């Protein structure tokens, strides 16, 4: 992200924006944009870049601090914790299993899809 650049991110109405802010930061940690002990965007930078209220950003960052994904260096800002990537992966794998796969299987049952049908669909998507 460039200084002063406004990013066109569309926030989803189905989830509070502060949670989406936390998710965006997590994505940046997972994809290597932010590495261990690197500083993440400041509240002001994040707020300006995404055109959202600073209080919303503070709340999103607060979630990550509470989960031990970010830590604060007094007077300097927020930094990525040593085991942040692993914590995010564990949290997201749990959500993937308990929410997304559960929803997928419920829908598959409604459609009469077998496990083999689902696996074939997944394999086809993986090829693309």
Automatic annotation (TrEMBL):
Residues 15-83 form the HTH gntR-type domain. Gene3D superfamilies: Winged helix-like DNA-binding domain superfamily/Winged helix DNA-binding domain. This is GntR family transcriptional regulator. InterPro entries: Tscrpt_reg_HTH_GntR, WH-like_DNA-bd_sf, WH_DNA-bd_sf. It comes from the Bacteria. Keywords: DNA-binding, Transcription, Transcription regulation. Signal peptide: none annotated. CDD domains: WHTH_GntR. Coiled coil: none annotated.
